[in-house]
Design goal:
This protein is α/β, with parallel strands linked by helices and 373 residues long. It has three domains: 135 residues, nicotinate phosphoribosyltransferase (Alpha-Beta Barrel); 57 residues, no CATH class; 121 residues, no CATH class. Helices cover 39% and strands 16% of the residues. The protein contains 13 helices and 14 strands. The protein is globular.
């Protein structure tokens, strides 16, 4: 397979910075990662994905890779399991997932959008989001060779930044990003889940250039309100922000069931995932504790959906009228056209169970897997 000479410019910035932090702190535990997708389909693209992991790391010497023996997949089936020192693989997630997603998408015959169609999509979103900045965060969903072109089209349509260096090179800048689940999970294994999000913010603040905005992902352990307040107290009167990316398995901390069940509300008001209720609860918690002037929130997870965008912008307007503060300050958008997206989740650190809440992994049936490294 044709691969770039260097993967770094195609890597989401938060993974590059995580590697920088882990190296600076001398932290390098072995992580176990499960790669999966949703829906049903044929298993393809495994060899190319393994090639990404082996070409750009020492995993052949330091770790192991397993691939499924199955020829078809169902939702959340293990397609690939890899285990390696964290520093070896943290910055390979973007490229490897993009290669696998591309293969699965082609096998399903999913149609790619043209650059003009992508630009038009972002123009429509810009009309909805108005002065709220749009960030393109979708590099992991598409093949690395398409990243520069997709990013260029998104920027032409109104996005202000992208998550990779090759994407942001279109505007003469480097990629941008927040903290990722990966870093918080590694730190949780060392410092405990209760302190992990706070420690993530502290180490990012310690090692990353002060010109980089301090934006902390809050949902790793489903303590969005508790963890964001702890981080806000650490920063005090210094500007910082929080990204909400609560997965569809969870109701955000302090949130309500939808129709009495733990499920998704089609109007995004309550229930699982990133909801209006969660955004309001988190923001009000910060405002009521004196951090309204020093904090902002960034929302991600399906915010390229135009109906969802309209609902949240209406909520933002109402929230401003009521409190004088914005509900959210930016959105991250990953999906620019339909593809068979893949996910990589840590499920062990140094052989002990560790995962984000809602993505716990039951015991892996290695009889259904084949070790290739």
């Amino acid at each position: 397979m044709n691969l770039p000479k260097n993967h770094k410019s195609y890597t989401d910035k938060y993974f590059s910075r995580t590697k920088e932090i882990l190296e600076a702190e001398g932290l390098n535990p072995k992580v176990s990662v499960k790669v999966f997708t949703r829906g049903i389909g044929n298993v393809v693209g495994l060899d190319d994905t393994v090639e990404v992991l082996t070409k750009f790391s020492n995993i052949e010497k330091t770790g192991e890779i397993w691939v499924t023996k199955k020829h078809t997949y169902n939702t959340k089936d293990s397609l690939i399991i890899y285990k390696a020192p964290a520093q070896d693989v943290v910055d390979l997630e973007t490229l490897s997932l993009g290669v696998l997603s591309d293969a699965l998408s082609k096998d399903k015959g999913l149609k790619e959008s043209s650059p003009q169609e992508i630009t038009d999509k972002f123009r429509r979103l810009k009309e909805i989001y108005q002065d709220v900045p749009i960030l393109y965060f979708g590099a992991r969903h598409y093949h690395w060779s398409k990243d520069a072109e997709i990013a260029k089209a998104a920027l032409a349509g109104g996005a202000v930044q992208t998550s990779t260096d090759v994407g942001s090179a279109n505007i003469g800048k480097e990629g941008v990003g927040t903290t990722p689940h990966f870093l918080t999970l590694v730190l949780a294994a060392i410092y405990g889940k209760e302190l992990a999000t706070l420690k993530t913010a502290q180490l990012f603040d310690k090692h990353i250039d002060p010109s980089v905005p301090r934006t902390t992902l809050t949902d790793t352990f489903n303590k969005e309100l508790t963890d964001s307040l702890a981080v806000a107290k650490y920063f005090g009167q210094r500007k910082n922000s929080f990204r909400i990316d609560t997965c569809g398995e969870n109701i955000g901390e302090g949130g309500s069931l939808y129709n009495g069940q733990k499920t998704k509300d089609p109007s995004y008001q309550m229930g699982t995932g990133v909801t209006v209720e969660l955004a309001k609860n988190l923001r009000m918690n910060l405002i009521n504790n004196g951090f309204g002037d020093f904090t902002e929130t960034v929302l991600s997870s399906s915010f390229g959906n135009e109906e969802k965008a309209k609902i949240f912008m209406q909520a933002n307007q109402e929230f401003k009228e009521k409190t004088g503060y914005n509900l959210f300050a930016a959105v991250g958008i990953g999906e620019v056209y339909k593809a068979q997206f893949c996910t990589a989740d840590i499920f062990e650190v140094d052989g002990k169970p560790m995962s984000k809440i809602g993505r716990e992994v039951n015991e892996i049936d290695y009889t259904q897997m084949r070790r290739v490294i």
